[in-house]
Amino acid sequence: MNRKYRKTVIAGNWKMNMTASEIKPFMDQLKENMPKPRFCDVVLCTPAVMIPTMIKAGKEAKVFAGGQDVSKYEKGAYTGEVSATQLADIGTRYCIVGHSERRQYHGEDDLLVNAKARALLNKGIAPIICVGESLEQREAGVTMEYVAYQVKAALSGIDATHVRRCIIAYEPIWAIGTGKTATAEQAQEVCEGIRAVIRKIYGARPARSVSILYGGSMNAKNAAELLAQPDIDGGLIGGASLKPVDFSAIIAATNQ
Ligand code: PEP
To answer: Which of 65, 118, 184, 228 has the fewest CB atoms nearer than 10 Å to its CB?
Structure first.
């Protein structure tokens, strides 16, 4: 982390779990365990239908609501889609794009991820852009090459002012939901590489202000070591974000 130049962000990805009626009890428990003081932004990304409940429940504890996906279109005949305008209108501050599950199960490619990130930025929502290699790619030694390509593609056409509001989440696919975490050194190496890619495109100042998160089986035990790395500015957390005690322990790990 480097709190001097950029925000620390702990974001939970609830995926298609929980219900709106479970949010208040969750938040009550999270509040009880929340470290005081706290030095990071806390976000919980829920299915779109639960965002208004999350915004209401998270107000007191300053927990922001995030989306998990957005349409690339502004409006119109796109049944089932949710637009950035609609997310912004209800007060959504962050939204995940390009999660590996969307890339894998919904055929999202880099072009679409870029269009979604731009749609969000146009409406003042910070995109959490997910990138990361498969196990085969890591074993073939092409991790950085592939991740650099994903980052460049996702940021295509985004200017320096807007890039400062982007958050990049490095999520090695082999570490998501598997209990296998990248070592702190592996995660730092790629996050540092991502910052170098941003520096090459936009220069030193924008690069040092972009928050880069690690995601992939981050938990209460491994969070402190990962977050101690200079280029890891927070976490995108799946499983552990569903348990208020575990999630608050990860938040507490940013108080170092
Ligand atoms: C995720 O889905 O973004 C994620 C990192 O999940 P988990 O923490 O469960 O590996």
So the answer is: 228
C-alpha 132 – ligand 1 centre gap (Å): 12
What was the pLDDT predicted at 139?
93
Domains of the chain as residue ranges with CATH: 9-253 (3.20.20.70)
Least Cα distance to 12 among 55, 49, 47, 45 occurs for: 45
Show the tokens assigned to 205: 């100042």
Helix, strand or coil, per DSSP, at residue 35: coil
pTM, two decimal places: 0.96
Task: Return the amino acid letter for 100.
Answer: S
Residue 181: the pLDDT is 86
Confidence class for position 16, pLDDT limits 50, 70, 90: very high
Q: Would residue 224 be called left, alpha or beta, if left means φ above 0 and alpha means ψ between -120 and 50 degrees?
A: alpha
Ligand 1 residue neighbourhood (C-beta within 6 Å): 13, 171, 176-177, 215-218, 236-240
The active-site residue, picked from 99, 101, 108, 162, is 99
DSSP 224: H
106 in catalytic set: no
